[in-house]
Design brief:
289 residues, alpha/beta, Rossmann fold, six-stranded parallel beta sheet, two-stranded parallel ribbon, 12 strands, globular, binds NADP nicotinamide-adenine-dinucleotide phosphate
């Protein structure tokens, strides 16, 4: 199988390229230097040129707060280029697996969001990703879409690395405890992406690790692991705070746990709990490379 991974310099893109290589697939990773998604009119042809069996679209404008100012850029990358990727893949009859986000939901629910629950994005990023999903399905009704959330991994920038940095610098960490979701480790997401290609999947799938957490729970577990693994720590105290005490330009959903009922049936292995995967990731991070 020949796979093309966009956003190959990002957290998920890097991990997905490595996972595909480890599985013995032919993989091409492309990053922003090779193909700029802020110019959608160049995207379809460039994607089609590779004639990949599967295109896994990990490229996205992911700066949730900056998107509130840079609306045009967010929509060019997340909606217009997502459509162009689908047009490119459709032009030669390839398959597409597009990656999306829990931020398409508004957080009103208090039970996990199923794939077909109504979208209600709260900000520009979420709206641009939601319109991107619709554009992809418009062009390629048989595309597969994987929605994930709270992504972290060895590569790139993420909450785990930020907490480790702050915990080495500060006595106290103040972390919001009224936003509820589930972390997702890029290694587990990549495995799920690979499984969906093998299963020749179509349609929308949610994927995160198992379990539920607030950002405070997530931070507390990061620091507990950091202590066990000997990361340098100054922090003495982690304090839960409400979101109103940590104002950000973009509103986040208060609850964005994704139901995994559908994807559990598509995978032939159990999805690890987020605590288990966090420990595995931090063990890997602690090893000299
Ligand atoms: N991060 C999360 O918590 C989260 C949560 C839910 C869903 N997701 C989704 O998961 C997917 C992967 O996200 P991630 O966490 O891996 O994000 P990431 O680390 O920010 O990676 C996104 C990649 O897209 C690339 N990109 C951005 N603008 C581009 C442009 N104009 N042209 C070409 N490439 C461009 C970035 O390139 P540069 O490296 O050059 O900036 C980066 O390599 C995305 O679809 C995202 O919406 C992420």
């Amino acid at each position: 199988m020949k796979c093309l991974v966009t956003g190959a310099a990002g957290q998920l893109g890097q991990e997905t390229v490595l996972a595909l290589q480890a599985a013995g697939e032919v993989v091409i990773g492309i990053d922003r230097q090779e193909l700029d998604f802020s110019q959608p009119d160049q995207v379809a042809e460039a994607i089609a040129a590779h004639q990949a069996d599967w295109v896994i679209n990990c490229a996205a404008y992911t700066n949730v707060d900056k998107a509130e100012q840079e609306q045009e850029q967010a929509f060019l990358v997340n909606r217009d280029s997502a459509r162009a990727v689908a047009e490119g893949v459709a032009s030669y009859g390839g398959r597409l697996l597009h990656v999306s986000t829990d931020f398409i939901f508004g957080g009103e629910q208090s039970h996990p969001y199923a794939e077909d629950d109504p979208a209600n994005p709260l900000g520009v990023y979420g709206q641009s990703k939601w319109e991107g999903e619709q554009a992809v399905q418009d062009v390629m009704p048989d595309a597969a879409i994987l929605r994930t959330a709270w992504v972290y991994g060895i590569h790139g920038h993420n909450f785990v690395k930020t907490m480790l940095r702050l915990a080495a610098e500060r006595d106290e960490l103040r972390v919001v405890d009224d936003q509820i979701g589930t972390p997702a480790w890029t290694a587990d997401i990549s495995r799920a992406l690979l499984s969906l290609t093998k299963a020749d999947a179509s349609g929308v799938f949610n994927f995160t690790n198992e379990g539920v957490a607030s950002w405070y729970d997530f931070a507390s577990e990061i620091i507990a692991n950091a202590r066990d693994l000997g990361f340098p720590l100054k922090v003495k105290k982690i304090s839960p705070i409400p979101s109103v005490d940590f104002p950000l330009p973009a509103t986040r959903p208060a609850y964005s746990v994704l139901s995994k009922v559908k994807i559990r049936q598509a995978l032939d292995y159990p999805i690890p709990h987020w605590r288990q995967s966090l420990t595995a990731m931090m063990q890997e991070l602690s090893r000299p490379r």
